[in-house]
Structure formats: C-alpha cells, structure tokens
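step: validate -> pass
step: tokenize input -> pass
step: predict -> running
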Amino acid sequence: MRNIAGNRVFNMILLFTIIGEFIVPWILERFYSEYNGKIMVMSVLGSPQSPVRLVYNIWLIWLGGFLAYTAGVYFLSLRAKFPVLAVFMLLSIGIFAVGAGLISGFFSVNESKDIVTTASKIHGTGAAIGFMALLLFPLLNGIVAFKQNGMVEGIISISSFVLSLIFFACFVMGDKEQFQNTLLKYEGLWERLTLFCMYIPFVYKSMSSLFF
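step: predict -> pass
step: emit ->
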C-alpha cells in the first residue's frame, strides 16, 4: 500500500467517500419525515425508527472500512520519513474509522435521546472517541505538509484544525439543555461543519493527486 497514496483510483474513491458523507444523509432524510438535519445528528438516520436505517448503516460500514484502509495507506506512505507522525496519523484516522464508522454502523442510536439501550451506549462511546481522534488529523497533516515544504497544504490543514475545534465545541454544547434556546441547539449543523473541516485535508490531498 506504500505507493497507493498517490494512486488515481484510490483518490477517486476517497473523494467519492468524503463527498458521500454529506450527500448520502441529504438524500436519505428526504425519506424520513420526522428527521430534522439541522437539529438531529446524522446517526439518527440509522436508528431503529428510521425507514432508511439499513441504507445508512451500510453506508457507515463502508465509510469505516475504507477510511481504515486509508489510514493504512497514509501510514505506509509516511513511515519512512516521519515514523512518529505516521503512527499518530494511523491512530487518528483508524480510531475514527472504527468508532464513528464500523461500530456506529453495527450499533445504532435511537431517534429519541431519552431511549438509552446498550447499542446506543456503544454507538455513542465509539462515535465520541472517533470524533476526538479525527480532530487531530488536520493538525498532523499540517505538520507533515510543513515538513515537506507544502506551505499551502499546511496552512489549509492547520486552519481546518482550528475550525474543527470551534465547531466541535459548538456541537458538544448543543447537547446541553441550557443552550437549547440559542444557535447552539442546531446540533446536526455543528456536527456536519465539524466533519467538513476535518475532511478538508483528505479532499485537498485527493484533488492534488487527481488534478496536479
């Protein structure tokens, strides 16, 4: 997998997967009348009450599986020059792939937060750990880019890291009762913005490989 990081097919699939992370929920919520994407997190699309749960959970398993593979690809492409950073990047992407992808795909949350099951607890823990792990990816990618004299990629990655932290803080606070009458109540929106910023370095790397 060492040379796959620059492979055209790999980067096309990665770009498709990242775009799909937003397009798939946007399409599926059209078939789930009770779902409100601004307030509800995307995981609710895979809840037992969702009419599109099978499709969304299969999507999460694909997402987790391919990002786990991507973690290995990036690790092998970097380990010769940056062994420590390569390990941290492997863990950052890999933990997200398993926690927010594979585990979340097999264990669903419920439509209502008041309904707590073993599956929803596993899902919540896996997704939370996964999100926190991937928060480091833009930072790690920025450090690698600067070490390789990639100033543009470095600046974009570090900026993505800062924005990810801000949006993630809003996302976490949006779950608190005291913020339900503020803009922070739009938990689904903050989740999407957090993911968008964390994914920007992936998109930049893929686009660079495909078009430059």
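step: describe -> The mean pLDDT is 93.
step: cleanup -> pass
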